[in-house]
Specification:
The chain is of the alpha/beta class. The protein is built from eleven helices and 14 strands. A five-stranded mixed β-sheet has the order 4-3-5-14-6. Strands 11-8-12-7-13 form a five-stranded mixed β-sheet. It has a two-stranded antiparallel sheet with strand order 1-2.
């Protein structure tokens, strides 16, 4: 059984696109299609459903996939045991990340990442829309959320600490809330549909429905509106740490931490045969952020 054919099949299972899978392995669409046909012929079964729009695995293809991954993983381990294989990740790495976080914390680190891995090309998509990794053909995604059960594998990159903030001018004009119940007399800036704030108090979780004259659909805009003195808002420390350090924002209700299990995650479709380029990206940013991210080193 040809290992290159297996490698192409495994990448196709992720990208669902013969041209893209072939490109990652340096193959033209025609050659990639021929290799897949040879793999099917050697097995005597149809592994793929081919349409004009996309490619998907047949039932036999889905059953064969974990075995193909195991064969490739065993081959890679055998090569590593004798020091064989590529010394540096290479190819095209397709990554998606939230817009605000990507612009503020991923883009500034890319010079170091690309310098460390000179054979990699990066296709980075910044969007606050939760994209389907398999459907979109992405190798890895950075997500800023509470991780839900799914078929994806995840590695935590950093904590996502969220706090209630206000501008000093707003507090001077309207007073500082001492308990979550005090929020009823304050202007609260919310993202659309997220007007319930939950806090951890001495007796358990306290949920407050907040109100205000301004709602926005973007976290950066919410932070900037808070800096402008338009009200209180919940901000991730990775978003507001510079404004906190400069005194443009201050934390309020510090004795009532927000009840949140969000974090920054790297998610990818499969833990088996983790591509060197994906491992390189995840390891780099996990080390870059560190156990105490630089945005939390300013104590609020």
């Amino acid at each position: 059984m040809n290992l290159e054919h297996l490698k192409l099949f495994v990448r196709l299972a992720v990208t669902q696109n013969i041209s893209q899978a072939g490109q990652e392995l340096g193959l033209s669409p025609a050659v990639a299609s021929a290799h897949l046909a040879k793999l099917e012929d050697s097995l005597g079964v149809r592994l793929l459903h081919r349409t004009t729009r996309k490619v998907s695995l047949t039932e036999e293809g889905q059953a064969f996939l974990p075995h193909a991954e195991d064969v490739l993983a065993s081959a890679e381990q055998a090569r590593a045991a004798v020091g064989a294989g590529e010394s540096s990740p290479r190819g095209v790495l397709r990554v998606t990340a939230p817009g605000s976080f990507g612009r503020q914390h991923v883009l500034p680190a890319l010079a170091g990442f690309l310098a460390a891995f000179p054979h990699l090309q990066l296709d980075l998509r910044l969007s606050d829309t939760m994209v389907d990794l398999v459907e979109g053909g992405f190798d890895v995604a950075i997500r800023n959320a509470a991780l839900k059960d799914s078929s994806l594998i995840a590695r935590k990159l950093a904590a996502d600490r969220r706090i209630v903030c206000a501008a000093p001018a707003y507090l001077a004009a309207h007073g500082t809330p001492q308990t979550p119940a005090d929020l009823s007399t304050h202007q609260c800036i919310n993202l659309l549909g997220l007007d319930h704030w939950s806090f951890t108090g001495p007796s358990g979780v306290i949920s407050v429905k907040t109100q205000g004259r301004l709602r926005v659909d973007d976290g950066t805009a919410m932070r900037d509106a808070c800096v402008a003195g338009l009200g209180l808002s919940i901000n991730s420390t990775w978003s507001a740490y510079q404004q906190l350090a400069r005194g443009e924002l201050v934390q309020v209700l510090a004795d009532y931490p927000l009840a949140s299990d969000t974090a920054l995650w790297a998610v990818y479709p499969s833990a088996r045969l983790l591509a060197p380029k994906v491992r390189a990206f995840i390891d780099f940013f996990a080390n870059h952020f560190g156990p105490e991210p630089y945005w939390d080193r300013h104590k609020t």
